[in-house]
Amino acid sequence: MSAESQLPRPADGSPAGIGAAPTGKAPSRLELQAEIEQSRAELGATIDALTTQLSPGYQARRATTAARTAAVDAGALLTGGGMPAGDERRARNVKVLLGSVAVLAAVVVLNVVAGRRARR
Q1: Would residue 15 count as lying in a domain?
Q2: Are 83 and 107 in contact (CB under 8 A)?
């Protein structure tokens, strides 16, 4: 049993999978070739965009830029400039950066205190 024989047949009795285009007329060979070429170009552009987005170099540049921006924004917050206005992501990055620094400072202090107690 072929895959075509499993498809429901159109009301006009034509073989399954073959029929008129929604406009009522069959597309010409040139129209089909143009549509295929357009689809190929769009698919190629999509693949190029995904390849760029997923490349390690691109991801590293994005992370570096985000870290630098967060550091500048945190510096502005600490010097009285306030949180970045209008950009939720930048405000979140500042909070994450300052929270991470606070946790790191707490771990260092606890290690120093524990080290001094161990020497006694």
Answers
A1: no
A2: no
